[in-house]
Amino acid sequence: MSNTFGTLYTITSFGESHGEGIGVVIDGCPAGVELDLEFIQSELDRRKPGTSRITTQRKESDTFKLLSGHVGNVTTGTPLGFFVPNENVRSADYDHLSFAFRPSHSDYTYLAKYGTRDHKGGGRSSARETIARVIGGAVAKQVLAQLGDVKIEAWVQSIHQLKYEGEPESIELETDYQKAVRCPDPEIAEKMYNFVDQIRKEGDSVGGVIKCRVKGIPPGIGEPIYNKLSSQLSAAMISINAVKGFEFGSGFAGTELRGSEHNDVFYTENERVKTRTNHSGGIQGGISNGEDIYFRVAFKPTSTIMQDQQSINSEGEEITLKGKGRHDPCVVPRAVPIVESMAAMVLLDHWMLRESSRLEKLKSDESSYRLPNK
Hints:
The protein is built from 9 helices and 18 strands. Helix 1 (37-47) crosses helix 3, helix 1 packs across helix 8 (332-355) and helix 3 (130-147) crosses helix 8. It has one domain: Chorismate synthase, AroC fold (4-Layer Sandwich). It is globular and about 65 Å long. The relative contact order is 0.16. It has 374 residues and is α+β, with helices and mostly antiparallel strands.
């Protein structure tokens, strides 16, 4: 099973939705990074369940423990270990799924691959595993902030057929509706909230789209050919639970333009190379060009719904599944910090790879042979 993500900056996650908890080991984080532990917790709070009526009502504080890799709050360059205990496990809610295959879930495919599966909350396939990703992203964001003025912001662009087409200057969520659905437009956010709440009452679910924008990434970040920045961002986003689509820059809409319309023309401003348009989404040839990076991620409707569904069991017999448990009627709002976190880890990983791509970067620095106080 693939539980590790990244090349130089890596995370390895472990744990299950209904086990003792979720943990993550971060390897490759540079020494000397002063960790803001409150920021890490605030990122987890953005993802945690039970924060509004339109999310799963599983109550978890998602309070982390930092186990290793630091002296005080400063990283030592050794693996950082984090653990978040599960506090509100109700495994009995899943007893009826011991031998049943839920529609659009991983129940059947896990069994087909491993010959066994954890039916309690989906085990490793549960979105609770994304706790590890948010922690890894929260640390990566802090390292990126020390490397440059990097800002990663994502927001809900659409839920079902309700869409926000704007491009906010910054993501300021002031009203309760905005905070609940993570949409910067207060009017549309209220409509989204009421719509998802109605879907919840009907026992159904809906999906939507998250847009993410990255400012402050310098040109030259990314590995061409098989490890492009765009392809790695795609792999990162597609690995998130319920994601069914990814596009960056003009995406599919670019197919409706001519080359003369789509090409990003270069010019210089204050000795910096810039482009007059940004159909490329900040990435050309798999490498950042210094413009804003932007992309969109599509999420399907939550597979578990509170309605009777037809399926089969492990004996191939037709059954009727009863909707039980605590589940999000729409996963999109809680996925916003996950999208940001995956982006942060990819960008930091590629930034570190860039530093190893030139000979002069690898040459010895005489100062490294001296004592710190000399």
